[in-house]
Amino acid sequence: MKKKIVFLTGAGISAESGIKTFRDTGGTWEGHNVTEVASPEGWKKNKALVLKFYNDRRKQLDEVVPNAAHYTIAELEKDYDVVVITQNVDDLHERAGSTNVIHLHGELKKACSSNNKALTVPYDKAIEIGDKHADGSQLRPFIVWFGENVPLMDDAMTEVMKADMFVVVGTSLQVYPAAGLSRYAKSWCELFYIDPSPLEDNVLPYFKVIRKVATEGMKDFVTLLNNKNESES
C-alpha cells in the first residue's frame, strides 16, 4: 500500500508562477480593502466591482503556468497516495497533473448560484451582471469569502487524519480554519513545513522546517523522501 502524503498549499506556491499573494500587510489586494471584494457584504454593496475584481484575477490566471513545485507534487503520485488541500483558487495544481485536489477557498474557473453556493458551473470567461445560473439567480464567483463557511473543511480533515506525512507549502498558517489542519494528524504522521519565513512559532516545534521557497523546498523534500526510502530498504 502506498504511503499517503497530504499537502496543504497556500499563496507562496503560486507566487513563484507570478500570481500575487492574497493581500499585503495593509490588508489590501490590488488596491482594494478585502471586505470590498471578498465578503458577502461587499457583494451586496457593489456586485459590479466584485465581478470585475475576479474577472481580472481569472484573466491573470490564463497568463501564468505551473511551476516546478506544482509539478513535483504531481509527480509524487507515481509512488505515493497524494492529496492536495489548497487555499489557492487557481488551477495550477490540476494543470501540473495533480488528480486529487481539495480547494478550500473555491475556484476561479467556476461560478455558482448567488442563492446556493453549492450549485456550481465551470466558467473560464468573465462573469457579467445579468449572467444567470439555471436557477435564475445572478452568477457569482465560486469563492469562499470572509464570513462564509468552508464547505470542504470536513473532507480536508478526513484526509489529514489518514496521512502518513502532512506537508505545508507556502502558507503562513494565519488563515483559519485551514491553519488548524495539522491538529488532525495522527501521532505517527510526519509533519513538514516548507516556507522561507515561517511565522507560526507555536507549531514549528512539531514540524521539520525547510526554510526555502516552494520550488527549492520541494526539491529538498523529495531528497528527504528518497533518503528515507533508501534507509528503510
Q: Can you characterise this structure?
A:
By secondary structure, the protein is of the alpha/beta class. The chain has 2 domains: 1-19 and 67-105 and 150-233, Rossmann fold; 22-63 and 110-143, SIR2/SIRT2 'Small Domain'. It is 30% helix and 21% strand. The strands form 3 sheets. It has a 6-stranded parallel beta sheet, with helices on both faces. Strands 7-6-8 form a 3-stranded antiparallel beta sheet. The protein has a two-stranded antiparallel sheet with strand order 2-3. A hairpin with a 6-residue loop joins strand 6 and strand 7. The longest helix is centred in the C-terminal third of the chain and has 19 residues, at 214-232. It starts with a strand and ends with a helix. 36% of the residues are buried. The model is unreliable at 24-28 (pLDDT under 50).
Question: Which keywords apply here?
Answer:
alpha/beta, 8 helices, 11 strands, 6-stranded parallel sheet, 3-stranded antiparallel sheet, single chain, elongated, SIR2/SIRT2 'Small Domain', 233 residues, Rossmann fold
Give the CATH class of the largest domain: Alpha Beta
List unreliable stretches of 5+ residues. 24-28
Helix content, binned percent: 25-40%
* Annotation field: number of helices: 8
> What's the architecture of the largest domain, going by CATH?
3-Layer(aba) Sandwich
The neighbouring-strand order within the major sheet is 5-4-1-9-10-11
Helices and strands: which structural class? alpha/beta
How many separate domains make up the residues? 2
Largest sheet: 6 strands, parallel
Q: Kindly state the mean pLDDT as a whole number?
A: 90
Order of H and E elements: EHEEHHHHEHEEEEHEEEH
Strand content: 15-25%
Predict the CATH topology of the largest domain. Rossmann fold
- What is the CATH superfamily label of the largest domain? TPP-binding domain
Q: How far apart lie the N and C ends?
A: 15 Å
* Overall form: elongated
